[in-house]
């Protein structure tokens, strides 16, 4: 679900969720986004917010996001793991499935 930084910060928090940071002109981000869409369709029950990093300075700087694409696993509102290499649908599926349980 596409969100702004302000929307994400004002959301009803869940114990575990993920945030996918991207930029619109990043080709690798588009591939990673497609992989995440497949993972979501496969039944991972984790909320995944999609945020344009250009408009998320507080999260980018606070979480020290170094590049995009970046998938941040968030537990109780705090980042616990950041993945920059979206290797495959299977890898993402296992990562998100394990984190959500």
Automatic annotation (TrEMBL):
CDD domains: TRX_family
Thioredoxin domain mapped to chain residues: 19-95
Protein name in UniProt: Thioredoxin family protein
SUPFAM superfamilies (UniProt xref): Thioredoxin-like
The organism's place on the tree of life at top rank: Bacteria
Pfam families xrefs: Thioredoxin
Organism: Paenibacillus rhizovicinus
């Amino acid at each position: 679900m596409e969100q702004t930084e302000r929307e994400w910060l004002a959301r009803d928090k869940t114990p575990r969720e993920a945030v996918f940071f991207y930029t619109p002109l990043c080709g690798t981000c588009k591939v990673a986004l497609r992989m995440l869409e497949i993972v979501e369709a496969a039944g991972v029950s984790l909320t995944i917010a999609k945020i344009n990093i250009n408009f998320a300075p507080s999260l980018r700087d606070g979480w020290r996001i170094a590049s995009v694409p970046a998938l941040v696993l968030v537990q109780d509102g705090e980042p616990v793991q950041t993945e920059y290499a979206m290797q495959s649908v299977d890898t993402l599926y296992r990562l998100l499935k394990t984190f959500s349980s």
